[in-house]
Amino acid sequence: MIWEVLGSALLGLAIALVAAHRFADRFRDRSLVLATGPAAALAGGVITHVVLGPGHPLPTLTVAILVSGALLSLLIRPRGASAPGAPSVGAV
Questions:
Q1: N-to-C CA span, the chain
Q2: Using an 8 Å Cβ cutoff, are 30 and 24 in contact?
Q3: 80: left (phi over 0), alpha (psi -120 to 50) or beta
Q4: How does DSSP classify residue 85?
Q5: Mean of pLDDT over the chain
């Protein structure tokens, strides 16, 4: 199980690093991205390990990657979104 947990966290960190580099302009805080990726992958991996039991490393790592990607996608803001508190284009 320790290898699945370590692998999940490393894969989550790798996904977060790639996302932070590729979509740097779409994330508000890089440190939040780098913390969310491994944490989400770790949670997904542990939950999958508990559900499936030991001896299923490939599905466990696959679900860890999917959970990490899903939670990182929630942090992306739309293109052209202004900073919080900034007036919008049509504001009076």
A1: 58
A2: yes
A3: left
A4: T
A5: 88
What pLDDT shows up at residue 1?
75
Between CA 65 and CA 13 the distance in angstroms is 10
CA-to-CA separations, 33 to 3, 18, 27, 58, in angstroms, rounded = 23, 10, 8, 24
Q: What is the pLDDT of residues 15-58, one digit of tens each?
A: 999 999 999 889 989 999 999 999 999 999 999 999 999 999 99
Q: How confident is the model at residue 74 (pLDDT cuts 50, 70, 90)?
A: very high
Encoded tokens for 58: 């490939």
Tell me how far apart the alpha carbons of residues 24 and 43 are, in angstroms, rounded to a whole number.
24
Cα–Cα distance for residue pair 62/45, rounded to 1 Å: 8
